[in-house]
Design a protein that fits this description.
By secondary structure, the protein is an alpha+beta fold. It has helices at residues 5-16, 34-49, 89-105, 126-131, 137-141, 151-154, 184-188, 226-241, 281-299, 320-333, 347-351, 378-395, and strands at residues 53-56, 62-65, 70-76, 110-115, 171-179, 192-198, 200-209, 213-214, 250-252, 256-259, 265-266, 269-278, 304-307, 311-313, 316-317, 337-342, 357-362. 35% of the residues lie in helices and 22% in strands. A hairpin with a 5-residue loop joins strand 1 (53-56) and strand 2 (62-65). The protein is globular. Bound molecules: glyoxylic acid and manganese (II) ion (MN) (2 copies). Glyoxylic acid (GLV) binds next to loops.
Length: 396
C-alpha cells in the first residue's frame, strides 16, 4: 500500500472547513447541525470516490463499505460545541486515506466509518452505542440535549438519505486513530501511544429545586437557594472523594443551568451535569454512591432532588492481536512510543461489544483538546497514519 500524506492532509483540512469557527483551526460541528450533516454528505462522496459502498443508518452513522469482510477504520466527525479540528476527524480521514491506498494497491479491503454524536450532545458516544447494541434506538430517541431538544427530533434530518442497518459481522476488527487529548506524549516528547484500555464513564443530570424568591427582601436564613445547594454539594463531594479517588480519577460539572438565572432573583432551580471517569469499575460505583448520598443529604436542607438517567460505559481493554500489530508497526518506525490508557472516551468502547478493537494515539500540543486551540504537528499526524497503514498491512 502506498499511503499519500498530502492527499490525507488535504482531506483533513477540507473537513475542517465544515463548521470552521473562525478561531484558529477550531470547529463548531455538533451532531446533526447543518455543518455536521454537510460534512457527512461531503464524506459520503469521498467514500464513493474511494470505491466504497456508502451506507447510512437511522442514527446518521455513515459507513463506506469494502466489498468483502474487512477491517473497519474510523471515529467520528461531529464536534463539541467548541471543538478542535482533529478530535474524531483524524481517525476518519486516516481510515479514508488507507481505504484509498488499499484500493490503489488492489487490497486489503478496508471499510471506513464516521459515527454520529460521539461527543455526546445527547448522551455518551450515542451513535456507536446504538450501532453496537449497547443502547436501543428507542431509548436513544428519548434522550435530550441541554436545550431540551430530543434526539428523535434532531435525527429527523438524516431522513432524506436512504438508511439501512449495517451488520457488524461484516468486519474483522476496528482500528481507531485519535489525538491523545492529554499531556502525556507531548510532555515526554514521544510521538505515538498504543492504547491499552479505555476508562469507564458515568454521567448523571442532577436537579435541586428550592424556592424562587426576591433577592432583596428574603432573609438569608429563610432562603432555599438552589445555586447555594449546588455549591454546597460540590464542596462536600470533593471532601468525600478525597480518600476514594486516585490521581487518574476525574469528575466534572461541565453544564450548569440556573433558573431563572438573573441577578435579583434567588435561583429556584439548579440543574447540572455530574460526570465522572475512572479505569476501575468498583471505584466508578463507589463514586456514584457518594454522589447520590451527598445530593440526597443536601436535599434534606429543603430541596427536591431529581436524578436523570445514568449514562454509563464501563472500562474496556484493547484486543491483544490488533494492539500487537500497532506496536510492531510503531517499533518499526524507530520513533519514541509508549503503551498507555485512554482517559478520553471513544467509539472503540462501544464497538468492542461486537468485534476486536485497538487504538493509536498521536500527541496533542500542550495536551489541549475540546477547545479551539487543539492541534498536533503535521509530521506526527503523518507518522500515525503510516503506523496505522503498516498495522493494516500486517493484519491482512
Ligand atoms: C469524548 O469526547 C470524551 O468526552 O471523552
Ligand atoms: Mn473523539
Ligand atoms: Mn471529543
Amino acid at each position: 500500500m502506498h499511503i499519500n500524506p498530502d492527499r490525507f492532509l488535504t482531506s483533513l483540512h477540507r473537513l475542517r472547513q465544515f463548521g470552521a469557527s473562525g478561531h484558529g483551526k477550531g470547529v463548531v460541528r455538533p451532531a446533526y447541525s447543518d455543518a455536521d450533516m454537510a460534512a457527512r454528505d461531503w464524506l459520503a462522496g469521498e467514500m464513493r470516490d474511494a470505491g466504497l459502498d456508502v451506507q447510512w443508518d437511522a442514527m446518521g452513522n455513515l459507513f463506506g463499505l469494502a466489498p468483502e469482510p474487512s477491517l473497519l477504520i474510523g471515529s467520528h466527525t461531529d464536534s463539541q460545541p467548541e471543538g478542535g479540528w482533529l478530535d474524531g476527524a483524524l481517525g476518519v480521514m486516516a481510515g479514508l486515506e488507507i481505504a484509498r491506498a488499499a484500493r490503489d494497491a488492489g487490497g486489503p479491503p478496508v471499510s471506513v466509518v464516521s459515527f454520529q454524536d460521539e461527543e455526546g450532545r445527547f448522551g455518551v458516544t450515542t451513535g456507536s452505542a446504538v450501532w453496537s447494541g449497547a443502547l436501543s434506538l428507542e431509548a436513544a430517541d428519548a434522550l435530550t440535549d441541554t436545550a431540551g431538544v430530543s434526539l428523535a427530533s434532531a435525527r429527523a434530518c438524516v431522513a432524506p438519505r436512504e438508511v439501512s442497518s449495517i451488520d457488524p459481522r461484516g468486519f474483522k476488527g476496528f482500528l481507531e486513530m485519535h489525538i491523545e487529548q492529554g499531556p502525556v506524549l507531548d510532555d515526554a516528547r514521544e510521538r505515538l501511544g498504543i492504547v491499552t484500555d479505555i476508562v469507564g464513564i458515568r454521567d448523571l443530570r442532577i436537579t435541586f429545586d428550592g424556592q424562587q424568591n426576591h433577592a432583596g427582601t428574603t432573609p438569608m436564613a429563610l432562603r432555599r437557594d438552589a445555586a447555594q445547594a449546588m455549591m454546597q454539594f460540590n464542596a462536600l463531594l470533593c471532601e468525600r472523594f478525597r480518600n476514594v479517588v486516585t490521581p487518574q480519577s476525574v469528575w466534572t460539572m461541565g453544564h450548569i443551568a440556573l433558573h431563572p438565572n438573573t441577578p435579583s432573583i434567588i435561583p429556584g432551580r439548579a440543574t447540572f451535569s455530574m460526570q465522572w471517569r475512572d479505569g476501575n469499575l468498583d471505584r466508578l460505583e463507589h463514586m456514584e454512591r457518594i454522589i447520590r448520598d451527598t445530593a440526597r443529604e443536601i436535599g434534606e436542607g429543603g430541596f427536591d432532588v431529581t436524578f436523570g438517567p445514568l449514562l454509563a460505559l464501563d472500562p474496556v481493554v484493547m484486543d491483544a492481536g490488533l494492539r500487537g500489530a500497532l506496536e510492531a508497526a510503531a517499533r518499526e518506525t524507530g520513533a519514541a512510543w509508549r503503551a498507555m490508557p485512554s482517559g478520553a472516551l471513544h467509539d472503540a468502547t462501544n464497538v468492542s461489544r461486537v468485534m476486536p478493537v485497538a487504538m493509536l494515539f498521536v500527541p496533542s500540543i500542550g495536551g489541549i483538546s475540546h477547545a479551539f486551540e487543539e492541534d498536533t504537528r503535521e509530521d506526527d499526524l503523518v507518522l500515525g497514519l503510516r503506523v496505522l497503514g503498516d498495522a493494516v498491512a500486517r493484519l491482512a
